[in-house]
């Protein structure tokens, strides 16, 4: 245990650094001024139950109080933490203040008749959208900050699209634009969300498959929406979407299987080779166009398409079989 005199001198030094009198110090600790005096003169030790309160009032760590010495590492960490908090506050309030000032200027211009109200609404929606992207509202959420950021930023984009459509009196394009926004968010962020928040269960083991299904469903809805809102016939496009997503869904299922990574890679390679080979046949059938897929390895100039796709199929099959073989061999070790 450290000597009473050393502890007393340390308490007095820190009290004076905090610019507290013995009376003020005692009042914050709910003890008598005489008790504080005895601590500082080395007559008595503070009660062990007072340690945390003394540290709080003097802004020191318990280690510093017990050892009666400055903890340089602790103070450096505390200083860096305070600096980080200041930077966080600045990065929130500086752009926020700029957004508010911009809106105020536009509001004054509108009230003066320089700017129409429709433009003011677009500016307000744009500023709100920008705010939701940066600095965002995540500082108000202790948990689920990623979800909060994605949800609020997506709402900001959708709100901006709706306001622009209403202000310009042209709303037919809004559903398509909103679906495109949701599709973009799903493609980019859904795999990240599933990986971060699904620790076990079906979702955890089928993340890739679920992501591909969501992408396919939103793409089909997007194509169907465009077809409803425009006179363009996109049924063939819907069939093409299904064909393009089919290998992704199958590989999503394969990736979810409890197999060696090389085996899964080999199966996926073979699947993509097969789909690449039959892609031209599918396009010809769907769009009712003739497709020349004849194969003659002795004449590459005339039979380029067929020869190239056959080569791709053989290469994918060979690579896939090789990976499967390596995976099986590795699994037996």
Description:
The chain has helices at residues 4-17, 22-29, 33-40, 51-58, 62-67, 72-111, 117-133, 145-167, 174-197, 202-205, 207-229, 235-256, 261-286, 304-332. It is mainly α. It folds into 4 domains: 4-70, lambda repressor-like DNA-binding domains (434 Repressor (Amino-terminal Domain)), CATH 1.10.260; 93-168, no CATH class; 172-258, no CATH class; 259-333.
- End-to-end gap: 59 Å
- Helical fraction equals over 70%
- Helix/strand-derived class? mainly alpha
Q: What is the count of β-strands?
A: 0
Radius of gyration: 34 Å
Mean pLDDT: 88
Overall 3D geometry? flat
Tally of structural domains: 4
Uncertain regions spanning at least 5 consecutive residues: none
Oligomer: single chain
- Helix and strand run: HHHHHHHHHHHHHH
Major pleated sheet:
none
Number of helices: 14
Strand content: under 5%
What is the strand and helix layout of this fold?
Blueprint: H1 4-17, H2 22-29, H3 33-40, H4 51-58, H5 62-67, H6 72-111, H7 117-133, H8 145-167, H9 174-197, H10 202-205, H11 207-229, H12 235-256, H13 261-286, H14 304-332
Which keywords apply here?
333 residues, 434 Repressor (Amino-terminal Domain), 0% strand, 76% helix
Task: Give a quick rundown of the structure.
76% of the residues lie in helices and 0% in strands. By secondary structure, it is mostly helical. It folds into 4 domains: 4-70, Orthogonal Bundle (434 Repressor (Amino-terminal Domain)), CATH 1.10.260.40; 93-168, no CATH class; 172-258, no CATH class; 259-333.
């Amino acid at each position: 245990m450290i000597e009473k005199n050393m502890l007393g001198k340390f308490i007095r030094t820190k009290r004076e650094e905090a610019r507290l009198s013995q009376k003020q110090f005692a009042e914050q600790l709910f003890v008598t001024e005489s008790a504080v005096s005895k601590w500082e003169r080395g007559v008595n030790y503070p009660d062990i139950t007072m340690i945390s309160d003394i540290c709080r009032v003097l802004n020191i760590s318990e280690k510093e109080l017990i050892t009666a010495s400055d903890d340089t590492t602790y103070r450096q960490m505390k200083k860096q933490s305070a600096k980080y908090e200041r930077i966080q506050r600045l990065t929130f309030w500086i752009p926020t203040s700029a957004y508010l000032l911009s809106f105020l200027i536009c509001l004054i211009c509108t009230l003066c008749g320089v700017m129409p109200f429709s433009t003011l609404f677009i500016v307000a929606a744009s500023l709100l959208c920008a705010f939701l992207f940066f600095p965002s509202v995540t500082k108000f959420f202790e948990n689920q900050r990623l979800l909060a950021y994605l949800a609020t930023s997506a709402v900001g984009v959708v709100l901006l699209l709706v306001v622009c459509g209403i202000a310009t009196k042209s709303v037919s394009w809004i559903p398509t634009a909103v679906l495109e926004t949701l599709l973009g968010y799903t493609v980019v962020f859904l795999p990240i969300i599933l990986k971060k928040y699904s620790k076990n269960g079906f979702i955890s083991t089928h993340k890739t498959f679920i992501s591909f299904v969501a992408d396919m469903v939103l793409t089909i809805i997007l194509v169907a929406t465009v077809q409803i809102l425009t006179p363009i016939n996109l049924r063939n496009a819907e069939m093409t979407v299904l064909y393009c997503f089919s290998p992704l869904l199958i590989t999503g299922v394969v990736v979810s299987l409890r197999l060696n990574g090389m085996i899964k890679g080999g199966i996926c390679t073979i699947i993509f080779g097969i789909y690449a080979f039959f892609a031209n046949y599918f396009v010809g059938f769907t769009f009712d166009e003739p497709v020349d897929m004849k194969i003659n390895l002795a004449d590459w100039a005339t039979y380029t398409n067929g020869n190239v796709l056959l080569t791709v199929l053989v290469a994918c099959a060979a690579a896939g079989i090789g990976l499967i073989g390596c995976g099986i061999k590795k699994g037996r070790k």
